[in-house]
Amino acid sequence: MIYELRTYHCLPGRLPALLQRFETITLGYFEKYGIRQAGFWTTLVGESNHALTYILAWESLAEREQKWNAFAADAEWVAKRTETEREKPIVASISNQFLAPTAFSSVK
């Protein structure tokens, strides 16, 4: 199992719009494409409280490529994402990392 750590850095004041989009739109498409989430977090204390961090679980990088590309190319998803940013953008930047559990990790 590998894990993808993704952080969405929002424009000031736009985190609530991103959270709503994930809760009401994005997670349904994750389910449609079999994208498994391990958790979602907002920053309580840290560099910025305008961020959403989440972890996705993948069997392999090949699985990630197939499922993520299908999700990203879904015309209905793209249209709904675009609609949520009609008035103004939500996300300033996205960062991601792929993580492999150590032999002694409680998460495998």
Automatic annotation (TrEMBL):
Q: Where are the transmembrane segments?
A: none
| Domain NIPSNAP: from-to ranges | 3-105
> What InterPro entries would the database entry show?
Dimeric_a/b-barrel, NIPSNAP
Could you identify this protein by its name? NIPSNAP family protein
UniProt superkingdom: Bacteria
